[in-house]
Amino acid sequence: MKLLFKLTILLTLVTLISCNKEDVSEEYATIPVSPVIMDLTQVPYPKLSDYNFFEGEIKNQKPVYGVIPFKPESELFTDYAEKKRFVWIPTGLKATYVNDYSVLELPVGGALIKNFYYNNVQPSNTTKIIETRIMIRKASGWIYANYVWNDEQTEAFLDLNGSTKQITWIDNNSVSRTINYDIPNEVKCAGCHTISNIKRPIGIKPQNLNGNYNYADGTYNQLSKWKSLGILESNTPNNINSVVNYKDTSKPLETRVRSYFDANCAHCHQPGGYADFFDLKLEFKETTNQTNMGVCVNPNHTIPGIEGRIVRPGNLAQSLLYYRMTTNDQNYRMPFLGRTIVHDEGVALIGQWINSLTGCPN
Predict the structure, then answer these.
(1) Which residue, 188, 210, 181, 347, is CA-closest to 284?
(2) What's the mean per-residue pLDDT of the chain?
């Protein structure tokens, strides 16, 4: 009897342990794990698919678990290319808030993914992705990785040498446009993404992300969403001095202009930037002072035929800034990188603002 009793107890314990193991196994199986592959000793990989950022057909840009879409309130103009942006942060790590106007500090192993594409590409009237730019945070700092898509849209391949690609598409106004799209080389990447000789991202400033995004599970403030996902420190403030969408005509004109300058010009026109020798400071935090936007400021550079100011109130023809935005002359156009054609809507915005200003004191 004693032996039978001991055997019964032993079998009961084995059964309980087995059940507990099975329960634990099932519980752990429900915890998602990001399938992203980010070996910092091997990146940049030769192909975009090597990172495993997207599931299914890569051209559909459907992010895997852990790859989060985002969108700045005001976007950089790049010859009317559409953009899809994503961030990936290694499990258990978080981005850190510095201040409203500085980029979030991503942890080592973090990555930013930016896809450039056009809709209604001719002659087949389809969507075509041209390039995918990635910035990866290593222990030594940020690196660039640029991937050029094949015509079949099945893969993108590492290429930091730069090239051009002719694109014809039907724009939002049903007008056919053709450009030689400029895929930048590594030197051009550095021109915009280097401040005081340090490589860094541009768009992930809290002031740019403090707006709503339509996620798969609903519409949320982006910074709040990042915090809820555990990829941003919870002490990031809620009262952030933010840019606006410069296309939003319900917002004040000058705020829209300041937001446009911050998105399209400030990465060069700031201390330590590529164009800090010009008399302009175009970061959003600096443009509460109109002088920093060139209003009534004598230029330290000249353009034949224009003898005005950087911005001469009420006079587009004698405003150097306006001329630079409306010309395609490579010697004078601004921005000198990222565009080969004029941004009509941006020009209209800046023209409206200049015409709204009153005269200079002398």
Answers:
(1) 210
(2) 89
